[in-house]
């Protein structure tokens, strides 16, 4: 029994060492497997991010390509519109020249009065302020066409809202500029603005006090900017109602002015040799009343400008962009209609 005891202890120690070594190897194997799995997961995430980045880059390239194509298409359309605008201008000058020929001859006055009403003489002369406005308006239309092309391309390319807002703000500022130019022109020759001789014939058919009717323009724009929220619809309905009321008030004021002018000019006997003193007195009274006409045109333009600004505040950036584009296209179609009507066959 004494001889067997040392061997038993040695065997037990060796078995314990083997178990510890196996446990150590098992722990190392588990650790290596965990590390491998973590590395594999990290690689998978990196590959997914890489794939996402590649897809985003591909979409960005496609958007840029589409944007460039839209710009090229817009450039071609701009050239076509510029040619159309030039034809409309030539037609406008032709109509103006025909309009001023022989007015006083038909009235039996010969050449006694060399100056036409509103600054347009029978020989085709035009008030310098009105002529300057016509040139500025032509440049304004050219710039509007360019802005509309940029706006159309941006909407179709789905640019970010902050980029789109820059274009929308530019479009709104452009309308502010035409109102400023009209304010200057009204001082020089208010009849020129009211007559609409700076517009094409089709545009003149829809003119109200030297421009567009705000309430009618809202009717045209609403279908182009839908869908609208309930709050937006309420705001636009209120705006349309207030615009209509203001238009009615201005129209009534204009009718009263016209009636007052007619009464003043018709006072006394007509058809017989007038008393010079009475005649000059009538003209002085009529001239005084005509000063009110400029005020009416200014108020009408203020209403147009305020309506656009309030509409802009109601809409989102993209809705405002679509609204500006719809306005530009509507007026461009009126100009195109005039050109087509002028060029129609006359059999």
From TrEMBL:
Residue intervals of the DOG1 domain: 130-344
Intracellular or extracellular location(s): Nucleus
Compositionally biased residues, Basic and acidic residues: 16-25, 34-45
Region (Disordered): 1-45
Coiled coil start-end: 64-98
SMART domains the UniProt entry points to: BRLZ
Keyword Transferase: no
Organism superkingdom: Eukaryota
GO biological process: DNA-templated transcription
Family membership: Belongs to the bZIP family.
Protein name: BZIP domain-containing protein
Species, as recorded: Marchantia polymorpha
Taxonomic lineage of the native organism: Eukaryota, Viridiplantae, Streptophyta, Embryophyta, Marchantiophyta
């Amino acid at each position: 029994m004494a001889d067997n005891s040392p061997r038993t202890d040695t065997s037990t120690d060796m078995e314990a060492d083997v178990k510890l070594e196996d446990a150590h190897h098992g722990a190392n194997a588990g650790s290596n497997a965990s590390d491998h799995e973590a590395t594999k997961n990290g690689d998978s995430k990196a590959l997914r991010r890489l794939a996402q980045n590649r897809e985003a880059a591909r979409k960005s390239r496609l958007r840029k390509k589409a944007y460039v194509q839209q710009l090229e298409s817009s450039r071609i359309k701009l050239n076509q519109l510029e040619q159309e605008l030039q034809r409309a201008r030539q037609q406008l000058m032709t109509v103006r020249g025909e309009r001023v020929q022989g007015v006083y001859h038909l009235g039996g006055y010969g050449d006694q009065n060399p100056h036409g009403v509103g600054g347009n003489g029978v020989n085709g002369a035009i008030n310098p302020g009105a002529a300057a406005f016509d040139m500025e308006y032509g440049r304004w239309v050219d710039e509007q066409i360019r802005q509309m092309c940029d706006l159309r391309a941006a909407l179709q390319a789905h640019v970010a809202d902050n980029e789109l807002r820059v274009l929308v703000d530019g479009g709104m500022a452009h309308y502010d500029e035409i109102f400023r130019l009209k304010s200057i022109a009204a001082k020089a020759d208010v009849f020129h603005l009211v007559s609409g001789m700076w517009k094409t014939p089709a545009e003149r058919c829809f003119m109200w006090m030297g421009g567009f009717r705000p309430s009618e323009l809202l009717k045209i724009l609403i279908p182009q900017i839908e869908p609208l929220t309930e709050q937006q619809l309420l705001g636009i309905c209120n705006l349309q109602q207030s615009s209509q009321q203001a238009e009615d008030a201005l129209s009534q004021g204009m009718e009263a002015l016209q009636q007052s002018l007619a009464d003043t000019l018709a006072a006394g006997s007509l058809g017989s040799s007038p008393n010079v003193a009475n005649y000059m007195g009538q003209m002085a009274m009529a001239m005084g009343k005509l000063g009110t006409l400029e005020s009416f045109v200014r108020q009408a333009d203020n209403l147009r400008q305020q309506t656009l600004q309030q509409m802009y505040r109601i809409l989102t950036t993209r809705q405002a962009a679509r609204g500006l584009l719809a306005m530009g296209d509507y007026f461009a179609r009126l100009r195109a209609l005039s050109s087509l009507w002028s060029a129609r066959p006359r059999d």
